[in-house]
Design goal:
The chain starts with a strand and ends with a strand. It is 4% helix and 45% strand. The strands form 2 sheets. Strands 2, 4, 5, 6, 9, 10 and 11 form a 7-stranded mixed beta sheet that branches. A 4-stranded antiparallel beta sheet has the order 1-3-8-7, with no helix packed on it. It is mainly beta. The protein is globular and about 40 Å long.
């Protein structure tokens, strides 16, 4: 069993920054494929970013490229999402997700699909508003 706990959400003004963190426990963290998804009110959950166990393969959804950075620490069992230049459209509940499956580095579709991840955190609210 894998447990994921997100933290770092909050209220921020447009143009501001936040850093989300996800702490994993239960099984060797270095084996996990990790990702962040988000869900805005009235919308479907969408992919934000993902990172392989080595950190060498990362994907971002187009709307956050250049503004968000995903990283991980296998020694601390954490995956972070640094968010810059936040926009009101970034307002959502952000979820950390994990899976022990072997995802091909080149299979972008698998990394970006919420159906690929078996384990989910409870979510943390990010609100971007003036």
């Amino acid at each position: 069993q894998v447990q994921l706990v997100e933290s770092g959400g909050g209220l921020v003004q447009p143009g501001g920054s936040l850093r989300l963190s996800c702490k994993a426990s239960g099984r060797p963290f270095s084996n996990y494929a990790m990702a962040w998804f988000r869900q805005a009110p009235g919308k479907e959950r969408e992919f934000v970013a993902s990172i392989s166990w080595s950190g060498n393969t990362v994907y971002y959804t187009r709307s956050v490229k250049g503004r968000f950075t995903v990283s991980r620490s296998n020694s601390q069992n954490t995956v972070d999402l640094q968010m810059y230049s936040l926009e009101p459209e970034d307002t959502a509940v952000y979820y950390c997700a994990a899976d022990l499956g072997v995802f091909s580095d080149y299979d972008e579709g698998t990394w970006m699909s919420d159906g690929s991840y078996a384990y989910w955190g409870q979510g943390t609210q990010v609100t971007v508003s003036s």
